[in-house]
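Hi, here's the filled form for the chain we discussed.

Project: internal
Contact: R.S.
Residues: 281
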Amino acid sequence: MAQPKKTFRWQNVEAGVNRGYAIGVLVFLLAPLFVIVPLSFNAEPYFSFTDKMLTLNPDGFSLRWYRDIIDNPQWLEAMGNSLIIAIASTALATVLGTLAAIGLARSNMPYRDFFMALLISPLVVPIVIAAAGMYFFYSSVGLAQTTLGIIFAHTALGVPFVVITMTATLSGFDRNLIKAALSLGANPMTAFYRVTLPLVAPGMISGALFAFAASFDEVVTVLFLGGPEQRTIPRQMWSGIREQISPTILAVATILIIFSSLLLLAVEMLRRRNAAHTPQR
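And the returned structure, exactly as it came back:
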């Protein structure tokens, strides 16, 4: 029995080229990580691979730089400040961004496009310009070189992430559910907490995770607004590179890489959960 001839399809070639291009870009972006992570285990105080590391000699690897993070009070203080600022700014950004997205999701919202552009403008304006403007404004109201000022600045930078994710989540939200809750006697506040909030929670948490990551990694606004007591992890890394080059910076960078990867994994899991519970129209 004759075998059917296989036809040549350009679609398969195009798909293969696109896949290869995507893999190449991914390798190009991730290549620096494959250098930072091994160097963080270097037993010698060098930013280069030693002969013992290249030959995979166990004596060339050590956890001394990770122990230095725990033993160094400056790194511990920086971690504590970063966590406090990131948690506080994330909470504010999540509340404000969620409320703004709910308002923008209404079709009868006046000047909707203008307010949407205004809320996401921190993503468009260069961070140096935004930080400089915040510095002059916060200096005039006495918030410069204060933890509260940095929290407010990071809140402004985190709100766009919450607004974008919440707007995308609310685009597939069925508002007939709210009408049904109101028709059954629930007041608007009860309908929000019992109907709207549980359904949009995955999108809200995703936006909160992005806002947390943006605050935790932000260094420019801290350099402008922070004082000696507002030393965060990115600022400590910046100071360490300028003043005292130590592989401890690579150990902290490795921890941040793992932390960011876990955040992205959590966001992807929430996205899939939200897609699974969103009704198809």
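Let me know if anything looks off before we file it.
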